[in-house]
């Protein structure tokens, strides 16, 4: 949730994030579980701690998260899609046309697609 808030701009860089206890109470999870998630974000450099004040979003956190998610997007969605396209004999150009919508009216064999 914190990562999503940073990516979507709901949590700006240098903004304070809810405390571990607030986060745990809000989501009705064990505080140790909340702390583990927040500590993971600290380890990744997304959050940092100001002693005695709380946790804050690091400068550059949004860019780092976008880079990470773009890489995950390629691995999770694009690579399996392209592998399936190869199995079906769909060329990269056809995949590109499907994505951009320039090939919506026809199927891969040139016949009118059903709507």
UniProtKB/TrEMBL annotation:
Pfam families recorded: GntR (PF00392)
Native species: Microlunatus elymi
Gene3D superfamilies hit by this protein: Winged helix-like DNA-binding domain superfamily/Winged helix DNA-binding domain
SUPFAM superfamilies per record: Winged helix' DNA-binding domain
Keyword DNA-binding found: yes
rRNA-binding listed as a keyword: no
Record keywords: DNA-binding, Transcription, Transcription regulation
Domain HTH gntR-type: 1-60
The protein's name: GntR family transcriptional regulator
Regions that span the bilayer: none
GO molecular function: DNA binding; DNA-binding transcription factor activity
Top-level taxonomy: Bacteria, Bacillati, Actinomycetota, Actinomycetes, Propionibacteriales
